[in-house]
Amino acid sequence: MSGWTPALDREYQQVAASLTHHHPCWWVMWSYSLRVWVAFYLGPAQVAPLRYADPDLLARQMRHVTRTVTVGRSP
Question: Which listed residue, of 1, 5, 28, 30, carries a Cα 20 to 30 Å from 11's Cα?
């Protein structure tokens, strides 16, 4: 019997780890059930988790939120 296992999504997990490494104010995980990357802001501001199926769009939005929070505006 061949079914889905988390090991089948290893590539997605590696992308999440890379995004976390390159964006230290964020923790990124791959959501198996939603089939998207979810990013959690680790800084002092309250920011809703970001969810994107495209890692490039997620990274772009993470940079935008980080810049916005840095200058003191709400994201």
Answer: 1
- Rounded to two decimals, the pTM is 0.87
Task: Give 17-67 pLDDT, tens digit per residue.
Answer: 999 999 999 999 999 999 999 999 999 899 999 999 999 999 999 999 999
Amino acid letter, 57: L
CA R_g for the chain:
14
Half-sphere exposure of 69 (CA within 13 A, CB side): 16
